[in-house]
Amino acid sequence: MESIQFIHTADLHLGSPFIGMKGLRKEHWKKLKDSTLDAFDRLIQYALDNKPDFVLVVGDIYDGEDRSIRAQARFQRGMQQLAEQKIPVIVSYGNHDHLSGNWTRFELPKNVHAFDDSVSQFRLETAGGPVVFTGFSYGKRHISESVVERYPVAQDTEAYHIGMLHGSLEGDSTHAVYAPFKKEQLLNKQYDYWALGHIHKRQELHREPSIVYPGNIQGRYRKESGTKGFHSVTLSKTDTSLEFIPTSVVQFDQVTISIRGMLHMNELIDACRKELSLLGEAVGSAIVDVMFTELDRESFQLLAEIPESELLETLRESMDALDQFIWIQGIQFQQADNEAEISTLGITLVQTIVGWNTEEWKSILKDLYRHPKSSRFLEPLEDQSVAELQLAAAQKIRRSMQAGE
Ligand SMILES: [Mn+2]
């Protein structure tokens, strides 16, 4: 038996609304708004150019249960293009595009096999040999029970066995836990490859056999940073090779810039512009958080009288002169190690904020989260974002309450 070649993608989140990003310039906003759809087109173009044996899409094709028709039309068109080249597609739907959602339906072409809501198998003959896929689609939004036990152990050793599973590793609480599994449970099935979805960060949980999250194809906010894409996989009975193919149209990222000893604003602006245009050359369009580090006495004096919002707007305007889409989303400051003293009131404030636990943050923010209009737009308040909030608040206080200023 030779080898098979296929595309493994997941979490396309077509039609993501990019809530909270509306300060962007008009043309940049359009590019960001269409970025999930355009990243998907890059994937389709790669498939048309490279003609894999098949394409796997492991859940969350759409961002919302309502599946915008624009996103569906784009997906439909991509599937049609693959159909014309006789490239099969195997789809399982995830928590974001489960089968009970309320949406206008499109009929997908015959090259697409979509799993229904019970675990089942689908067999495909390819030039490299027969392949048996096992998977299921989410029938509803939340599947908190383990589903993997319903996957049969591989029997036919002549065929390649591929498991498709949209879910999370048991004990991984960084994302909502869906269809939890243990690595050993997957390995016990004797499959040749596990194509996972749900976690948006690209990672390989195991090799021989490979258990893989390809991550999403386009970042949606600052936490989904770095280049995003899918995997092109070559699988034989003895070997697996993964090639990462980038697709992201706009990259979320963080840049650190030292401002030690800076006395003049033009130095700071120049340093910022230089770093960001380098990033732009490397990755194309980007939305960045800038962390100014090594804030010392000189640079502190430079910044002391300037409201942060004005500094941010000035930096954004200075980036407009560049012929690139680089949007500064936010700025932060980190002090030099020999941190200047802050006033006693400042210390008390910082200690109070740092002392709040997640429950206290939730109680402080409860009115906002319970508000019928605002709550729809808020991400759940997780421990990690609480830590980020605490850090940002403490930095702001430190910066504006230094002793003797
Ligand atoms: Mn997802």
UniProtKB/TrEMBL annotation:
<dbReference type="Pfam" id="PF00149">
    <property type="entry name" value="Metallophos"/>
</dbReference>
<keyword id="KW-0378">Hydrolase</keyword>
<dbReference type="InterPro" id="IPR050535">
    <property type="entry name" value="DNA_Repair-Maintenance_Comp"/>
</dbReference>
<keyword id="KW-0540">Nuclease</keyword>
<protein>
    <submittedName>
        <fullName>DNA repair exonuclease YhaO</fullName>
    </submittedName>
</protein>
<dbReference type="GO" id="GO:0004527">
    <property type="term" value="F:exonuclease activity"/>
</dbReference>
<feature type="domain" description="Calcineurin-like phosphoesterase">
    <location>
        <begin position="5"/>
        <end position="201"/>
    </location>
</feature>
<dbReference type="InterPro" id="IPR029052">
    <property type="entry name" value="Metallo-depent_PP-like"/>
</dbReference>
<dbReference type="InterPro" id="IPR004843">
    <property type="entry name" value="Calcineurin-like_PHP"/>
</dbReference>
<dbReference type="InterPro" id="IPR014576">
    <property type="entry name" value="Pesterase_YhaO"/>
</dbReference>
<dbReference type="InterPro" id="IPR041796">
    <property type="entry name" value="Mre11_N"/>
</dbReference>
<keyword id="KW-0269">Exonuclease</keyword>
